[in-house]
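Per your request, structure below.
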């Protein structure tokens, strides 16, 4: 009985989320779209607000660049706090951390790092925001990535928005103060569309890894069916690309990840 109720709740949550997403994921392509495969970075840093955003937002990009031999590091900014969902579904924060390592082993990237900011606390706490900026500045100045994936500042989730804003601010300051050479900045989308100016076709292999890695997050999959969400966003962006294309013609892809790329002059 309890299992049945949980499944119903999960289906309702999933349908509601897809309904919300379908209102905002309308065609927002630039006319001359760039293929992200034309980027050739050496060191990538992916900034993910929560463990699982790296899979949903840019799992195919991680898969692509790892296959090309690029060093990819994922930074998870927040850790699970005592919010209600954890209590409802009876899992402990450590479980999500373990799940992120399982997902890492499927995507095959180089390194997984954690900051320890409590979930949903950054948006209203200037002290925590300052600490995030300091810790991120120290990290990027030590590691010097030449490509950084950053969450979209127009996301529905307040953690995604604030981490997107603070990350852009911190990276800009490091560049202006000449503590960091200008990296390619790739804004990616989780629950809110970017102004797409670049994309990556999700290959069958990448799609398979994306789905297998999101299924590692059992603590999250029990509340929403993120496989459906990933399929919805991928199909939606594939459809946008088929309708818009590039100067050279239409782009025939089934599924895609969309990005807003900045800081690359000789692309
Ligand atoms: Zn998130």
């Amino acid at each position: 009985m309890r299992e049945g109720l949980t499944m119903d709740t999960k289906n309702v949550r999933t349908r509601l989320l897809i309904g919300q997403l379908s209102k905002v994921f309308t065609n927002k392509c630039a006319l001359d779209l760039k293929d992200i495969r034309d980027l050739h970075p050496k060191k990538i840093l992916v900034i993910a607000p929560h463990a699982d955003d790296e899979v949903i937002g840019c799992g195919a990009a991680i898969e692509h660049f790892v296959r090309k031999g690029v060093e990819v590091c994922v930074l998870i900014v927040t850790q699970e706090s005592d919010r209600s969902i954890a209590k409802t579904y009876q899992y402990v924060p450590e479980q999500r951390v373990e799940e992120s390592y399982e997902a890492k082993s499927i995507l095959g990237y180089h390194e997984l790092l954690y900051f320890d900011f409590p979930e949903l606390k950054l948006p209203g706490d200037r002290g925590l925001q300052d600490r995030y900026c300091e810790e991120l500045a120290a990290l990027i100045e030590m590691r010097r990535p030449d490509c950084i994936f950053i969450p979209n500042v127009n996301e529905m989730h307040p953690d995604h928005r604030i981490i997107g804003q603070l990350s852009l601010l911190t990276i800009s300051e490091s560049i202006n103060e000449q503590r960091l050479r200008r990296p390619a900045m790739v804004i990616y989308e989780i629950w809110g569309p970017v102004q797409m100016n670049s994309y990556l076709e999700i290959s069958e292999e990448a799609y398979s890894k994306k789905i297998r890695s999101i299924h590692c997050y059992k603590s999250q999959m029990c509340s929403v069916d993120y496989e459906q969400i990933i399929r919805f966003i991928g199909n939606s962006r594939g459809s946008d690309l088929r309708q818009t294309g590039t100067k050279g013609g239409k782009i025939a892809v089934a599924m895609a990840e969309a990005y807003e790329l900045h800081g690359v002059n000789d692309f």
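Residues 49-50, 53, 157, 160, 190 surround zinc ion (CB under 6 Å).

Regards,
D.
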